[in-house]
Amino acid sequence: MKDENPLRVLRGTTLEVYLFLIKAGKPVGVREIQRALKLSSASVATYHLVKLEEAGLLRQEEGGYTVTKVILKDTIRISHFLIPRYFFYSVFTALILIIELVFLRPSVIDRGYFIYTIATAILFLIFCFETVKKWLEGGL
Length: 140
What we know:
Radius of gyration: 21 Å
Number of domains: 2
Structural class: mainly alpha
Strand content: 5-15%
Strand order of the largest sheet: 1-2
Order of helices and strands: HHHEEEEHH
């Protein structure tokens, strides 16, 4: 029976198992998961795999378990990499800040330019903070 909201099971060790399977990008066996995540036994790994399977997030194949559905809040998957969405916002605001400081700088710095530049710098710092927080939170 599949869970209505698969995000409910994505906590703690179950989340770590799920992220490991996503990063692997190929079928992974129970023992491999146990060793990689340093779980106490294979039955612990199996418990978390069954939770994920019941939630409809993965399935068992010949070579092991593989992810069928990737749902990670505020995360983008590119190949085997999981990148927080805020990373792209950080890059975008950094480019805007560089353009403001290098190309759009007036000969006399007025109040409007100063306010826009400070606002862009604050946005950049906020997005950098959120990116680092998400990276540490999800162990990405």
